[in-house]
Prior knowledge:
Blueprint: H1 2-9, E1 18-23, E2 26-30, E3 35-41, E4 44-47, H2 48-80, H3 82-87, H4 90-112, H5 120-123
Antiparallel strand pairs: 1-2, 2-3, 3-4
Helix pairs in contact: 2-4
Amino acid sequence: MAQALVRLVNGVSPAAPGWYDVHRQTQRWWDGRQWTENVIHHGRPITATALRAATTRMQWMWVGVGVAAWVAFLVFSFAFGPSAAFALAALPVVGTAAIVAAAITGSRLIAAVPPTPGSPIDAR
């Protein structure tokens, strides 16, 4: 009640119920008072909790890919010498890129679908 009064006094009306974009190809349902668990991600319905869990799994998978690339580079470099290190120099670059990309994209999506209530007006 107090939040609604503050919004009306400040000239900001509450957002109407509906689907609101929260991230690239991700919409979340606003019921007029708070965010619900209903999310549409890439055209498929999913709950906000399930989306956060899937995104977290995706982040850890890509971190694993990045670490595996680094381990492969180090093993082959020590096993076969400098020529192998030079030939496999792309592995650390790919591994680091996988870790960084997972951290950035996953974190942005997790932040876009928070478990705490807010409003579409607060996100602007």
